[in-house]
Amino acid sequence: MKKKLLMLFTMLILSIGLAACGNNTSSSNSSGTDASSYPERNITIVAPSGAGGGWDLTARSIAKIMSETKLVEKAITVENRAGGGGAVFMAEYATKEATNDYMLMTKSPPILINNLKAEGNSPYGYKDTTPLAQLTKDYGAIVVKSDSSFTSLIELLDAIKADPTSITLAGGSAPGSMDHLVGVLPAYAYGIDPKQVKYVSYDGGGEAIAALLGNNADVIATDASSIGEYVKSGDVKVLAVSSSERLPGVLEVVPTFKELGLDAEFTIWRGLFGPKDMSDEAFNYWSTKLDEMAATEEWQIELERNGWQHEYRNAEDFTVFLQEQEKVIGDLLKALEMHK
Amino acid sequence: MEIITYLLNGFAIAFQWHNILFALIGVIIGTAVGVLPGIGPMSGVALLIPVTATMTSGMPTEAAAASSIILLAGVYYGAMYGGSTTSILINTPGESSSVVTTLDGYQMAKQGRAGAALSIAAIGSFVAGIISLIGLILLAKPLSNIALQFGPAEYFSLMLLGLCAVSGLAGKSMTKALIMTVVGLMLGTIGIDTVSGIARFTYDQPVLYGGLEFLTIAVGLFALGEVFKTILEKSDSTQPIAKIKRILPTKQDLKDSAIPITRGSLMGFFIGVLPGAGASIASFFSYITEKKFSKNPDSFGKGNIAGVAGPESANNAASGGAMIPLLTLGIPGSGTTAILMGAFIMYNVQPGPLLFDDHPDIAWGLIASMFIGNLFLLILNMPLVKVFAKVVQTPPKYLLPIIIAISFFGVYAVQYNTFDLYLLLACGFLGYLFSKHDYPVAPLVLALVLGPMMENNMRRALTISNGDWKIFITQPLSLIFIVIAVAWILVPIILKLIGRKVIVTDEG
């Protein structure tokens, strides 16, 4: 009996080990017969965070779809390299791995923000990588409780303008990072000094929503994709979203910043990056493969399964987009006096 | 009445043979995850999400979602069961929530009572699991509303109370305990401050931006510290290891544990409901409460079974309590529940205010399966106690390298960087020096957890009130905590002053 249990236990430990690798080794190692020699080895996509976060899920989805659709014959493994909100791996990626064609990375706006902000600065930005593609998008939303006296964003902004101490804005990330920027962006566009806006940061969007529902915050800035359920249940109302056009679904009735006469928009994108000195061969390979992947039905299903919105930009468009975004974020950080 | 119908429906789903199997697999893997340091419940659940997705791929969406979640939740509470094992046997906390279990659990193991400690941890976890489930069924809605009322001011006062109670962890000298508390608080300030976004004590090293990892420090101080001690003080290693007298707890053990288990379960459940507080805080509060209420507080830290029974029940109950904000509000209170929420969303099921209306089968099926899972865990864990208890009898020359390997593997698996391995070594060496000179390490570790939460909540509260300190005493809940905190410190001193004979652990 005892032996059996011990056996069972050993098996379990092994099965966990297997589970840990299962996702990574799902594709076959058969060698490609392409005319070009890249890729000759297996490929690693690094998520510069722990398992389970947005970067990690994006990396795993790419690996999964690429192998399921047999677009990439070599195995793609996902590696988690947490630390410093992505800054630790970024430093390594931009220096030690600058010529490693076999290591890619998933990232989102923090690649710009971390590089621009004064505190907790990462000396490396998107220019120290080769942008390959934008794959998904999300938007910021300005949310109040359903029994709030504010019925429009302009009313809220007027109240902040009249007395900045009277309104508490909350978000799920540190000042100078994404939620804060989304929250003060409309205020900045409305002519309010963004430094005056009272911002309280929580550990993650969930806690920020809790603060809103518990009357510990008057308004929160969060991801549009995560707020729909609370709108349906009638707990909150969304005053505005940061997209350029109205969003589908429950948020259809919500105006954009632009509609309200505020010249501001913000996209929470996620994309794939290559190393700084990527070879042309590798760059062309990934540009083609990502183009193809984004068009597959499997990728669409994967996006839907994760609740992500499709937005594909190829390497060229993505680089232009990053340049524009860098300017938007830079201006805002300057106004907040948080620019490096 | 309506609830009973829903619950019975839930059982109908949970008793489908494949769901029983999923619950069983979940809790077995969970136990293993809990036992192995480094793979905590969080990474365990995260790594299994793609596996369950494949396993359930042939089923209709709703049923697939129910089955996957049943398995993943099993991993979560199963890990809470298993977490105590390494704490008790080799002084290596696998999860932050089982750090306090090392204090008395390891001492019990040294005395040859490893079997009793492990059994009571399993029994306590089972009772806690059931109590928190009943709480989940009956109190989910009202409690989730109360949890929302917990704002930054309330959190600050609760943490303040916790810090005042650190005295409960003091060894011989209160002064040394306070020194260690302050060191812990100072270490907690390293990293990018989440309230202002300012980098503190990072010296522009990105590796320090996220602060020092709690688990690295805890494993270093407790496990490696013990290893160094055994190696450097050779006399210890030749000492005969206490023989395991019995596997099951004695009648007296059970009697001594009954109240701590009940108290720990209730306390753990209510703390677990609060988003952000979580299992570590619950186990810690339970420990100091048991010590405070004990007739014999001196025996804590020397192998008192209540010091295992209370915290182990509390951390399990907390994982049940943490399901409340997740299921009813869609607010994950901890890293693991955040990943569970990701799993829900993957199946297009959004946890939150509408979950019980939109997907009653999933919600109630999950709750019912947790009853079954907890029963499995008890049946599974009691025989395992015998196997595990043997670990203590392993000669040090084999055991020590294993502990070192597990510590390094565990820390690397969580942090993925070599900096933490150096930190681990340094903490191990410090841990040895501390214990050699009688500085208690538990206050340091707990201050490291409480410090940042306390500081952030204080500053959030002050931001909300525009710098008005009155916010801490005008909020009724916050006021209550502050009054208790003040009483905790003052009452023993006053009693002593007026000449009553009380045990005050102020000087040694």
From TrEMBL, chain A:
Signal peptide positions (record): 1-19
Key words of the record: Signal
Entry-linked SUPFAM superfamilies: Periplasmic binding protein-like II
Coiled-coil portions: none
Family: Belongs to the UPF0065 (bug) family.
Protein name (Swiss-Prot/TrEMBL): Putative tricarboxylic transport membrane protein
Lineage: Bacteria, Bacillati, Bacillota, Bacilli, Bacillales
Automatic annotation (TrEMBL), chain B:
Record's keyword terms, sorted: Membrane, Transmembrane, Transmembrane helix
Transmembrane segments: 20-49, 61-79, 116-140, 177-195, 207-225, 266-288, 326-347, 362-385, 397-415, 421-450, 471-495
InterPro entries documented for this protein: DUF112_TM
Position of the signal peptide: none
Protein name: Putative tricarboxylic transport membrane protein
Claim: Transmembrane helix is one of the keywords in the record: yes
Lineage: superkingdom: Bacteria
Residue span(s) of domain DUF112: 20-446
Keyword Transmembrane carried by entry: yes
Pfam families per record: TctA
Organism placement in taxonomy: Bacteria, Bacillati, Bacillota, Bacilli, Bacillales
